[in-house]
Amino acid sequence: MNIIDTKIPELLILEPRVFEDDRGWFMESFNHKSFTTLLNERGFEAPNFVQDNHSSSQKGALRGLHYQLNPFAQAKLVRVVQGRAWDVAVDIRQHSPTFGQWVGIELTATNHRQFWIPAGFAHGFIALEDNTQFLYKTTSYYHKESERTILWNDDSLDINWPVEGLELKLTEKDHQGATFTQAIEIGDTF
């Protein structure tokens, strides 16, 4: 597995080894032992995944920026198995040197990349193709009462979403998310 570091040390891009021949391809999408070793080598604690989620999105569907408060905070390992998405993680840990910074990457069915997002980050993505299938493993169960949303287009975060030419599709929850400043002021960060 190839590991790509990002400007935020805790966010990692994983490129699994893919074996291809004239029949198609094979890859190991997750191996607990390898993943634990990978994180431990970087000084991070290995997670215990408890839930897998799968969403299907049409082109222009934007989901996020979502997170859950402690003690229900979720770390996520995300990937796209069909289509294309642009995925974003924002550091919302107030005592972090990268607080308020973000990393965005393109995840596709053909690049097989995975994105490791620890707890303490808000997460969102936009589907760049119809029928984009997005999978993510989480370290905590969904807990509606602790779920929070930061506006995807908050000016203070200045996220460079690739939305030009797309007809955006958002839920009411995502339209009405808090600004980053509001989330900080009401204590909805880490």
Automatic annotation (TrEMBL):
**Name this polypeptide is given:** dTDP-4-dehydrorhamnose 3,5-epimerase
Q: Where does substrate bind?
A: R23, E28, Q51, D52, N53, R63, K76, H123, E147, K169
Q: Which GO terms describe its molecular function?
A: dTDP-4-dehydrorhamnose 3,5-epimerase activity
What is the role of this chain? Catalyzes the epimerization of the C3' and C5'positions of dTDP-6-deoxy-D-xylo-4-hexulose, forming dTDP-6-deoxy-L-lyxo-4-hexulose.
What pathway annotation does it carry?
Carbohydrate biosynthesis; dTDP-L-rhamnose biosynthesis
The record places the site described as Participates in a stacking interaction with the thymidine ring of dTDP-4-oxo-6-deoxyglucose at Y142
For whether the record's keyword set contains Isomerase, the answer is yes
Q: Show the Pfam families listed in the entry.
A: dTDP_sugar_isom
Point out the gene that encodes the protein: rfbC
The organism of origin for this protein: Psychrobacter arcticus (strain DSM 17307 / VKM B-2377 / 273-4)
